[in-house]
Amino acid sequence: MIELTLVTMVLLIVVFVIKPGRTPPLQNPLIIDRTGKYHITLAPQLNLAQPFIEDIAKQLNKIDNMPLNSSTHYFEVRDSDVKAHGKNYYFLAVTQRNGKLYFQAISSHAGFPQDRLNELKEFANAVLINLPANGEYSEELNQLIISATLDAAQTRGINISTL
To answer: E strands within the chain?
Structure first.
């Protein structure tokens, strides 16, 4: 009887200490590269933004005969999943270069929002400088990226605005 009580107490302690819960925020950047499809770079603690960004990529990858190059588009994203980890919003950059989508996201920590946006622009440009565009930029693709991003946000109940 004492053994059963002891085992029950140990199990209860283990369940309460190591209970399943929210995914802990990552302290390192998350980089995902799906060869030929997309490349995602997420700043530390933005790992929960991945499903939203992959939804955008899925929508854009469904389009046949999509132009190769777009301008870089910037968004302010207010996602309740990411907010759970202490971030009210984050910035997202989306572009397509030579047929591959590139996503970069940074969080909204201290500092003025405009400073963080400029930091994102500099980071996105630094990533893309090594990827010269083969061909023209497409205004049609620009609109498709904006539309897919807004649609994915609406589907997930995320507030988003273009910058």
So the answer is: 30-34, 38-42, 73-78, 90-97, 100-107, 159-162
* Tokens found for residue 107: 């969080």
Token output for 72: 């870089």
| CB-CB neighbours of 152 under 10 Å | 21
- One pLDDT digit (tens) per residue for the chain, 163 residues: 777 787 787 777 766 666 555 555 556 778 888 887 888 888 887 888 889 999 999 988 887 777 788 888 889 888 887 776 667 788 889 988 888 888 988 876 655 566 777 777 777 777 776 777 777 888 888 898 899 999 999 998 988 888 8
Predicted TM-score (pTM) of the model is 0.74
> Which residue's structure tokens are 């854009």?
60
